[in-house]
Design a protein that fits this description.
The complex is a heterodimer. Chain A is an all-beta fold. Chain A contains no helices and eleven strands. Chain B is globular. The interface between A and B is medium-sized, with 21 and 20 residues.
Amino acid sequence: DAGVIQSPRHEVTEMGQEVTLRCKPISGHNSLFWYRQTMMRGLELLIYFNNNVPIDDSGMPEDRFSAKMPNASFSTLKIQPSEPRDSAVYFCASTPGGFQETQYFGPGTRLLVL
Amino acid sequence: KNEVEQSPQNLTAQEGEFITINCSYSVGISALHWLQQHPGGGIVSLFMLSSGKKKHGRLIATINIQEKHSSLHITASHPRDSAVYICAARTGNQFYFGTGTSLTVIP
């Protein structure tokens, strides 16, 4: 059974460029989470979807960040325009049913903005 | 002020030792999560608990709601336990993460 799939695994881009990170949750899971991890701030929850609907996006740092979940098997996190301080590892996780279930993490996307 | 504090920050142990990692939190919680981050960066959810104790193999997690404190114990530690252990306090739809405890188990 495939776990959470994220792409790309590594991304290097220049400041000002648009970056799109992708996530495919585990089949049958109805909740999806996007996290960011940096050395300075550690892990942070950015946004939480339940049944494809954004439930809480209070962790999204600013308007340059947006996330969508057009269907149960795909989500994107977009940064436009990107800045060097966005450099981080971005993780996607899914659960069968909300926060009260065990989270299954993807391998992460390591983003470097030059 | 951090809502979640972990100690110690770094821990080195000899194989076979009993290990304890502590987590204190200041917020009212729905649950307390323990995560393991492998040296390669992958994250695994170990435990989610709101009371009492949970055990999985050599790992034991406890929580004291009144004292707002949780501990993660590893019995008979092994080099493959070397990782960063992160606790996270969940309140509603929010997570407050600790900064992690980096554990190295020496053969």
